[in-house]
Amino acid sequence: MTSMSWTWQSAEETHRGKRRKNNEDALLSRPEAGLWAVADGMGGHHAGDVASLAIATGLAELTLDGSLADDVDLVEDKLREVNDCLRLHAHVECQGGTVGSTVVAMLSRGDVGAVLWAGDSRLYRLRGFNLEQITRDHNPISDLLDVGGVSEADALAADTNIITRAVGSQPELFLDVAVFGVEAQDTYLLCSDGLYRELDTCDLVEALRGEVLKASARDLLQKCLAGAARDNIALIVARPDVR
Asked: Count of CB atoms within 10 A of residue 137's CB?
């Protein structure tokens, strides 16, 4: 089977929300390189904006021109490097306090994509009318689900802001990686929890089915700001087209 060749379009939005003084979310869109990322600085910790910006800046520096597997390795190595730098920064500048951030990063090569993540920022894929969450949150409930400690229904009903993995939070960074197929007119959403905790599935699907990605991204942000918008918001909408 011949691998498809895609061009990509993407649009992004970020906002501090209604209750936060600062925006500690950061995002990166590199459609020409097939790389997108959202990072959510950990609220309540020291310098969450420093952590999220370090992730976006580090990934922006990468030269990505190899195979998908090679480029996944490069992203993984860079995030581990950022993890080490954040821990050193915390030790020197923040009296040992945590300087951390979630991350979700998507790569695409041909008709195959990959996602790397730590924490509860998410990647969704809309195919037709079916919205699928490709990532699984790193939190106590999801961890229990992985070992059979709770049911899928219990995990879906649970709502927690506690995360068990993040860049900068532990001496060694453990990232999950998932590989998936890409089809024409799939629409992908990378976002921080400040978006998906405010909107339901119908809101997400309605916005993501729009033809113009900039309008879809703006619609998602406006839907969120029309509600409580209790946290920072960061989102990227991306879609492949046949070249």
From this structure: 25
Location of structure tokens 């821990």: 87
Q: Which amino acid is located at 96 in the chain? A: G
CA 10 to chain centre: 14
Whether domain 6-242 has CATH 3.30.720.120: the reply is no
In the chain, domain spans = 6-242
pLDDT digits (tens, 9 = 90+) for 62-112: 999 999 999 999 999 999 999 999 999 888 888 777 899 999 999 999 999
Partners of 167 in the β-ladder = 101
pTM for this predicted structure: 0.91
Establish how many alpha carbons lie within 13 A of residue 112's alpha carbon, considering only the half-sphere containing its beta carbon: 12
Write phi, then psi, for 77 (nearest 5 degrees): -60, -40
Rounded CA separation 190/112 (Å): 17
Give the integer Cα–Cα distance in Å for 220 and 11: 11
Any residues with CB less than 8 A from the CB of 107 and at least 6 apart, and which?
Answer: 34, 35, 64, 68, 71, 72, 75, 113, 114, 115, 116
Residue of 241, 191, 243, 240 whose CA lies nearest to 220 = 191
